[in-house]
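Incident log entry.

Two folding requests arrived from the same account within the same minute. Monitoring flagged them as a possible duplicate submission, but the sequences differ. Recording both here for audit purposes.

Request one:
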Amino acid sequence: MPTTAPSRISRRSTKTSTKRTTTPSWPEKQRINMAELQFREAIRAAMVEEMERDETIFLMGEEVAEYNGAYKVSEGMLEKFGPKRIIDTPISENGFSGLGIGAAMNGLRPIIEFMTFNFSFVAIDQIINNAAKIRYMSGGQFRVPIVFRGPNGAAGQLAATHNTSTESIYATIPGLKVISPSNPDDAKGLLKSAIRDDNPVLFMESEVMYGMKGEVSDAEDYIIPIGKARIAREGTDVTIVAHSKSYWIALRVADRLKEEGYSAEVIDPRTIRPFDIDTVVESVKKTNRCVIIDEGNPFASISSEITYQIQERAFDWLDAPVVRITAKDVPAPYAKNLIEYYMPQEEDAYKACKRVMYVD
C-alpha cells in the first residue's frame, strides 16, 4: 500500500478484524507430472482418459467424428474409439440432446457437444425440462449423468446469435450444474469430474481460449472437485471475482494495481452452480471491497447473484458498494469496434477497483 494513498482506504481497520491467512488453491493440483497443453488438448485429454476408464461414455454432436470437431477438440478420437462411441449427428440439437438424455437414463454417460452454446437454445426444452428435472420428478429412480459441453460467450465478430454468454440462463435452473473454466488445467480436472457426476452438467468453454497453452497435470486420475473456487492471487485491498476469459482481465487489472502499490485478491469461481460463495465472502471480509467482471448481460446475471449474496452475508464488512463490469445490455453487435465496446473492458474494471478503494 503506498503511503500516499488516501486514508479512506484503511478506515476498515477500526472495525472488527476478519483478516485471515489464505492458502492459494492453485497449488492444489498434483504437480508431480505437468505437461503444456492447449485448452482444446486439455479437454480432449479429459474425455480420452475417461473413455478409456469407462466404456459407457460416448461423445456425440455435429462434426465431432469425421471432421474432428468444429474446433478440433475431438481430433483423433474417432480413430481411437470408433464410430459407436464418437458419433456424428445431423444438425438437430433438440434431437441428439434428447437421445443423450435417454441414454443417460439407461445407464450410459453421454458427452454432448454443441458447436456453440448459442445453439443449445434449440435444445433448451430437453435440457431444462428433461435433463434437469427427471431425477427429481422420478423420485430419484432415474439418474441423468450427462455432460453438455462446447464454446460459450462472445468470440469476436460472430454477431448477435453466436455471442451469447449463457451461463446465467442455465444457472437459474435447479438440477443443472454449470462449469466455466479459465485455463487448461482446470478444464481437464473439472471436465473429468463432470463426466463422473451423476447429474447433468453444462461445461462451458471459450472458443477464443481453445489455443491457449498452459501447464496441465497428467497425474493419474487427476480431477478437480466441482464447486470449489480458486484463489488465483492473494491480496488485501480489493477482491476481484471473474470466470472464464474475464479472469484474464482480472489478472491484468491486478498487475496494474500492483504497480501502483495496491493489492488485489483475484478469485476464479470455476463453477457457476454450485457457486463457492464462502470463498468470495471470506475474501470480501478481508478486503472490504469487491469488483465482479462478468461477460454476461447485466440483468439477472451471475454478477447480480454474487452481489446479492455478498450483501446478504458480508454487508457489515463492505466499505464500498460492490461494483460489476459486464457486457452491455444489448444483443452482441457485429462491427469490430462495437463488439469490443460491448465486452467488459479492462479499463472499466481497473477504474472500478480504484473507485471502490476511493483512490481514483
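Request two (distinct sequence, not a duplicate):
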Amino acid sequence: MIRRFAPLLVFAGLLAAFGFGLMRDDPRILESAMIDKPMPAFSLPSLYEPDVMLTEALFKGQVSLLNIFGSWCVACVQEHPTLMEISKSGAVPIIGVDWRDTREAGMRWLERYQDPYDQVIFDEGSLLAIDLGITGAPESFLIGKDGRIRYKHVGIITPKLWREEIKPLVDMLNAETES
C-alpha cells in the first residue's frame, strides 16, 4: 500500500519544499549560526600597518559595523558611497575586512574610493572570513558592545537598507546596552 503512494508522498514533499522557498521574504537573508555568538577570536594585521595586530577586542565597548570587502569585488564599489555616508554621519564605527586581497591592491582601492573604515583588518588568507562563515563580498555584521554578533547582511548595504533596517538596529543596540 505504501509503495503505491510513495511517488505521491515524494511529490508532496518536493512541493512543500518549493513552497517554503518561495515564501521566504528575502532570498538574500541567510541564517547565520553566528548570530548572538561572540566575535571569533582572531589576530590579524592592520591593512596599513602590517606590524600592528588587530583582535576581537576592537569590538568591545561599542556597537560596530563589520564590513567584508576586497579590491576585486565589483559589488563593493556599488556599496562604497553608502559606507562613506555612514562614516561621515558618525552613527557607527565601521571596521573593514580586506578579504582575499593583496595589501597593495587593498590600499590602492581605498585611496581611489576613499576610506570609510575606522580600522581595516587584512585577511589575505581568509582566516577570519572562514570563522565568520563568509560566502562572498560584500557582507556585513553588526556587533554589539558586548562583542556579540547581532545581525548579518549578505550583499550591498543600500541607503534604504541602512535607513530602514541597519540604523534602527544600531540605535536599538546602543540603547539596549546603555540601560
